[in-house]
Each structure stands twice: as structure tokens, then as C-alpha cells.
Amino acid sequence: MMHKKGKNHSCRIVPPDILSYLPENVIDAIVIHLPLRDAVRTSILSKKWRYTWCRLQKLTLDQAFWKTTNNLISPTIRFTDIMYHLLTLHVGPLTKFTLSIGDLRNCPKIDNLICFLSRNGIQHLVLQFPKDNLYKLPSSFFTCFQIRHLSLHKCLINPPPAFKGFDKLVALELCEVTISSKFLVSLISYSPLLEQLVLQSSISDHIQIKAPKLISFDFTGSLKLISLMDVPLLAKLSLVDIDEGGSCDIAKFLESFPALEHLHLNCYSVQFLAGKVPKQLLSPLNCLKRLYLSDICLDAVDEASCVLCLIRSSPYLQDIEIQLYDSDSGDDDVMEELAALESREVESFSDVTLNHLRAVKLTGIIGLVPEMELIQLLLAKSPMLIRMLIEPGVGHNSPETRLKVLAEITKFRRASSKAEVVYKVA
Fold first, then answer.
1. What's the confidence (pLDDT) of residue 49?
2. Angle CA(240)–CA(246)–CA(251) in degrees, nearest 5?
3. What do you get for the CA distance between the two ends of the chain, in Å?
4. Is residue 337 within 8 Å of 364, Cβ to Cβ?
5. Cα separation of 124 and 392, whole Å?
6. Of 184, 189, 224, whose CA–CA distance to 205 is shortest?
7. Is the pLDDT of residue 14 over 90?
8. pTM of the full structure
9. 3-state secondary structure of 159
């Protein structure tokens, strides 16, 4: 292309393919932000872009990647072809890899893939397999010694005898995996840097967890007994669906968590901790800021006692959320016992003030005496309260009953002049 300047003629050559002249670091920055399928497609832009995706250090393969509109090509064949190209063309380290197989049945290249990852410095690994087709991890998986973040879904874990764990592991998530409780305890113990632990599984034995750097622990499933030992930094704890009929002393259980800030329990874990409930814990939860209780029955004596004990023992609470579930027992003896319990509990709060509580959310309210007592108590003991949101139970009472509940709530004394009480009538 000729460019004229005055009388003098100067020549400037414009590259015919400007994409080929972009700096390599710019190309890499563009490709790394694309979904893998689009990143691979950049190969056709120019010769310089052809193998850029092969240098990516973070890859995600999911169902959409090998899905095809050509019915003559099965997803398994397509998946196999993708694995072949990945294993033969990728160069350099691969630090983060996510594989979500979904409904794919046969995965002949998975073992080779795991071996490839173990040799290329994998640090963040996510493997998700079909529910009805547990994948047995190969021996090469246990040589991923650089692993820091590990998430396994629907796997069979059977380690070789010499395996001693991943000493660089920071985050571990195991969902619906088949693993022995003995190896699980060993895996956690041999991970001295572990900070985040998520377990969603059924465990038949008593598990003891020792993790001095653990900050967050989320358990969903069933077990006989769980012990958290040497967890001085634990700040977030969620225990859901512990339904093996065991029980635990709530005071002894919670005194092990001096740094606990966020606590989530549901009805089963509350029952698990309700073996012996004091009015107040000897070691108060001075760091607890958020208390979240789900599927709680306040018309159950043990659960009501546990809820009030937790609130009374947490003087620095800022946020309370309770999702109520109506057991609809209708037992006169139970209701009389609850009425007596509520009377004693209200009196026992005479020297308690929730000076830091700012937000309360209560869902599933149907107007039972224990529910109204709890609302009255929280309003009367929270001088810094800003907002209380109350949502009635769905399908449990008529609009007239809801209006009656609202009328009663408006009569309750509020310690905070700024407290806004929102009650959804409709």
C-alpha cells in the first residue's frame, strides 16, 4: 500500500495479517480468557496462533466440549479424540485441570490423562464422574505431589500401601466418593497445610480430624461420630444431615473451636449435639458472628434448648438466620413442656444482651408459641438490630392467621429504635 505525503512519496507496508504480528504474551493473554473450545478454534486464525492453546496452563473439559450435532459420531469417540490431541499436543506445565464427564459412560483415556497430569505439575485438579459409574483412581494419581487443590466427585479411592498423602494440599473436596474412614483420616493428617475441607459422603465409622491449619470444614452426610481435634484456626463450620443416631456433648464439641466465626447446623446435627444441653456453654463462642440453623423444629424440646443455648453463648453474634420446620406434633404434653421451657429460658436471658446483633432472618413462621417467644426475645435483647425479616411458612396457615401473627409482632418491645421488622403477609 502506497501512502502519499505532499510531493514526496513514502512507502509504508501494512502487515496483511495483523493477528500474526501480535506479541506472544498478548496472544497468550487473549487465549487464556477464552473457553477451551473457543481457544482451540483460534488455531485457524494464523500460523502463530495455531498451537497457542497447547501452552495453556489451565484447561476445563466438560460435556459441552465434546457434544456434537453429528449423530454418527458418538460422544465417547469424540471424547477419545479430544484426549488424544490433548495428550500429544500440549506442551509445558498444566497447573489447573477440570474434567466434568456427566453422562459419558466409557472413558478409555482417563488413566492416561491422570498419568499425563501427574507428570506436568498439576496443582489444582477437579474430577467429576457419573453417579452410577464410580471411577477408580489409577496409581499415577497418587504421584501428583504438587497438588494443592483437589476436588473429587464420584470416585473410588484405593491408595497403594506406600502412599503418605499430599503434603502441599491446601483445599480438599470429596463428594460421594468411596473411601475408607482409615485412609480419609490418614489423608487429612498427612496434609499439614490443609485449610479447606468439604466432605459429602456417608461414613460408617468414627472419624477423627487433626488439621492445625484448617479454616473451613463443611460436612454433609451420615456418620456415627466425628471429632475435630487440634483445629485452633477453624473459622467456618457446617454440619448437615448427621443421621446415624449418635449423640455428642455440645459443650465439649464446640469448646474445641476458639476461632469459630460462622456456624451452620440443621435439625439432624442439632439433635446430634443435643445429648446434654446446658443453659450456657462454659466456654462462650466469643468469635461467632453468623449463626445459620436450617430445618429446625422449635416445637421439639431438645432442638429449642440447643438453639437458645447457642444464642445465649454467642455474645458477639451479628447475623442470625433460622429456617423453621413445623413437625406438627400436636402433643399436649410436649406443648406443656415447651411452654415451661420457654418461660424458664426467657428468665435465663435476663442478664444477656446481644449488643452486636444487626440482622435476623426467620423463615417458616406459623405462629407457634416458641416461635413468637423467640421473636420477642431477639427484639428485646438486640439494641443494635437493624433488620428482622420474617417469612411465614408456605401453606400452613391462612391470611387471617398471618395478619394475627403480624399484629402480635407489632406489640413486641424493641431494644433498637432503628430496628426494621419486615413480615411478608402475602
1. 59
2. 80
3. 72
4. no
5. 43
6. 224
7. no
8. 0.83
9. coil
46 vs 31: CA distance, rounded Å: 13
Please give the DSSP secondary-structure letter assigned to residue 388: E
Cell (9 digits) for 269: 446435627
Give buried/exposed letters for 199-220 (b at 16+ CB in 10 A, else e): bbbebeeebebebebbbbbbbb
Q: In sequence order, what are the beta bridge partners of 300?
A: none
Summarize pLDDT for 194-253 with one digit per residue, the tens: 999 999 987 767 788 899 999 999 999 887 778 888 899 999 999 988 765 566 778 788
Q: Dump strand ranges (E) for 176-318.
A: 196-202, 207-210, 216-222, 226-229, 236-240, 262-266, 290-296
CA 59, CA 407: separation in Å to the nearest integer?
Answer: 57
Handedness of CA 299, 302, 308, 311 (dihedral sign): negative
Alpha helices in 90-171 (DSSP H): 110-118
Q: Whole-angstrom Cα distance, residue 211 to residue 238?
A: 16
According to the model, what pLDDT value does residue 286 have? 94
Instruction: Say if CB 206 and CB 225 are below 8 A apart.
Output: yes
Read out DSSP for 355-376? Answer: TT--EEEEEEE---HHHHHHHH
